[in-house]
């Protein structure tokens, strides 16, 4: 089969590799589409824990079950269109992942290939209203956003939510999920075009986070926010505290701009703010997320679609952070 392989630091090739074989409790999937995450470009750049070379990256995938291993109900799964939960071995504690937790695409070989083997427990039926490309765009970012917005921040109908750095996959899912749940959503970005595209999706408006006075502007324009979703951190984190309503919840799933240089503790305790960390999601989060997407007919925003042979171009686009939505690699027609 053909697969994207990272043979060494900052190298990417499309090569022929042996087909994987399903073991007990596993299935072989013929992938129709896969999608990229920042995790994939960080692995390529050597900026991720547990690196190994060569590896097949990719955490997001959708396809059809081709073969069932021992112990799998073939009548229930063979030829079934599925999506893959990329959150492996979460553990028994809903509150946090356990020590065996891992993400599909490292150390296990990932979805940027024509075929993949995964445990049958990681599968869900592909939502019928989604195309293959949309289905492939859903798993990692959808799961991360769902847990952040609902399991951790407990967003409620009628609340006001701010989503920072709109344009990436998780941020856009957070926007779509919040709107589907009946919240009032606002966004930040350094790009006026991305803010306008978010407004077209249903956001009330947005703010340029490169403007140091954006939080004060937001307070006048929109009011303070009950929930704030962030993945940047860094020097701008204090502006998020300024934008939070008393009793507000700030949930963050990354720190792409590093740690905040300082943390205004008085603002946090005096205004009764909650700081909530989150990563990926549990099996319960996954099941609830898929049901939510089906119930509300949420359609992932797909930025660009590339062929498997053009995977290097897909990586280059993500490295430039030029996308609005998920970058998808079509594996098969």
Rg on CA atoms, Å: 20 Å
Level-1 CATH class name of the largest domain: Alpha Beta
Secondary-structure class:
alpha/beta
Largest sheet: 7 strands, mixed
As a percent range, the share of helical residues equals: 25-40%
Can you give the mean pLDDT?
97
Low-confidence stretches: none
Oligomer: single chain
Distance between the termini: 15 Å
Number of helices: 11
Number of individual domains: 2
How many beta-strand segments? Answer: 17
Strand and helix order:
EEEHEHEEEEEHHEHEHEHEHEHEHEHE
CATH topology term of the largest domain: Quinone Oxidoreductase, Chain A, domain 1
Provide the CATH superfamily of the largest domain.
Medium-chain alcohol dehydrogenases, catalytic domain
CATH architecture heading of the largest domain: Alpha-Beta Complex
């Amino acid at each position: 089969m053909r697969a994207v392989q990272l043979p060494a630091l900052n190298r990417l090739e499309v090569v022929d590799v042996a087909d994987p074989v399903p073991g007990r409790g596993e299935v072989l999937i013929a992938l129709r589409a896969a999608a990229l995450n920042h995790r994939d470009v960080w692995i390529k750049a050597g900026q991720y824990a547990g690196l190994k070379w060569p590896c097949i990256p990719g955490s997001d995938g959708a396809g059809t079950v081709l073969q069932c291993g021992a112990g799998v109900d073939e009548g229930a799964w063979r030829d079934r269109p599925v999506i893959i939960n990329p959150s492996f071995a979460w553990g028994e504690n809903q509150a946090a992942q356990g020590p065996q937790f891992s993400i599909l695409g490292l150390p296990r070989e990932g979805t940027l290939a024509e075929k993949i083997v995964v445990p049958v427990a990681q599968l869900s039926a592909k939502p019928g209203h989604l195309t293959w490309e949309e289905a492939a765009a859903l798993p990692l970012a959808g799961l991360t956003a769902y847990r952040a917005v609902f399991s951790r921040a407990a967003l409620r109908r009628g609340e006001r939510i701010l989503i920072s750095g709109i344009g990436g996959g998780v941020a856009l899912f957070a926007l779509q999920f919040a709107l589907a749940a009946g919240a009032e959503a606002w966004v930040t970005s350094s790009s006026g075009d991305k803010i306008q595209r978010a407004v077209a999706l249903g956001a009330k408006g947005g703010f340029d986070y490169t403007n140091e006075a954006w939080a004060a502007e937001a307070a006048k324009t929109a009011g303070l926010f009950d929930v704030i979703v962030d993945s940047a951190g860094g020097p701008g984190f204090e502006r998020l505290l300024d934008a939070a309503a008393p009793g507000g919840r700030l949930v963050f799933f990354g720190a792409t701009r590093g740690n905040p240089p300082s943390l205004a503790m008085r603002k946090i305790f005096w205004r009764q703010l909650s700081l909530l960390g989150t990563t990926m999601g549990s099996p319960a989060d996954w099941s609830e997320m898929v049901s939510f997407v089906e119930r509300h007919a949420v359609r992932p925003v797909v930025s660009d679609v590339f062929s498997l042979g053009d995977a290097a171009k897909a990586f280059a686009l993500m490295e430039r952070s030029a996308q609005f939505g998920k970058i998808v690699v079509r594996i098969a027609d």
